[in-house]
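Memo to structure team: turn this sequence into structure tokens by end of day. - J.P.
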Amino acid sequence: MNVYFDNAATTPMRKEVIQSISTVMEACFGNPSSTHAFGRSAKTHIETARKGIARLLNAAPQEIIFTSGGTESDNMILNCAVKDLGVTTLISSPIEHHAVLHALEALKKMHQVKIAYVNIDDSGSVDLNHLETLLQEDDSKKLVSLMHVNNEIGNILSLQQVGSLCHAHGAFFHTDAVQGVGHYTFDMGQLPIDFLSSAAHKYHGPKGIGFSFVRKNTGLEPFIHGGAQERGLRAGTESVHNIVGMYKALELAYGNLEEERFQVLELKKYFKSSLLEVFPSAHFNGLSGDDQSSTYTLVNVALPIAKEKVSLLDFHLDLKGVACSKGSACQSGSSSGSHVLNAIQSETLQNWPSLRFSFSVFNTREEVDYVIATLKEFVA
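Reply from structure team:
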């Protein structure tokens, strides 16, 4: 049996998405910048997708900028904030995705900007009192970058609370919402967010495509130079089929949201209860064991497995056809472990193996039973 419980890394594409991509690839190959009928047809597909995505988020179409995915979106926003908006202080947390953390490190070297990290507690939650202290420290122009849903431990950030705090102190607010878009609704007309990053492959869309939400009149200048695509912000011939596929995926995600969220949450609850029957002392990292404060799509659990057997656990799961993650999949092959777990775990828990199991609507209880039996077999 093969079980895919690594949906936080990427998701399988829906059949309807594959069909829409195939149709466009076959019938709409024109360059969207061309003025003839082939080009106009491609351009129409792009702008229809832009308007559709904007409608789903209650944003203006001109606020949706297509990118290659979450990493580019994060880098674009952070770089442009420094280059174009005069931001000299960037505030983030030590448990962000490396697309943000590494971009901050590079900006510090290149532009001598100040980087500040807000405190987090043992559960991985942001200390909002400390964030306010950082916002009040001086009169420098600031941008706060905090993720909506943590990709490793699933903690959910209150975007309303953080955005309001930022705006009360004259700071911009960017959120890496890669794990949130398609799983939670966003009303950009009401949320105090200036910039947002998203990636289609996290909600059953294609890889290599995403979008940035850029609040209109914020003053960003071109990030990639060349042509006039994407309101002049990002030059380069658009990936029409991927843009159409992303819109289809997001439309389906929000069209079936309540039903599928209930289904996946019930699966997560079943997984937790089944796991605790085999490992009563298992520890759910961060808030991933809390159904209210963490995303319904994942759990991250430390298992009380003997140290001498830990190195064989990944091999055993893979051999049995089980796909999950030791942490963020973007960290696969790293010997340093998860920076998120290193920041929040006690020394005892750091000696236990931690696994992230992430679910989608395509998973079943039978798959949960198989994974639990596989873990039980390993410890036996």
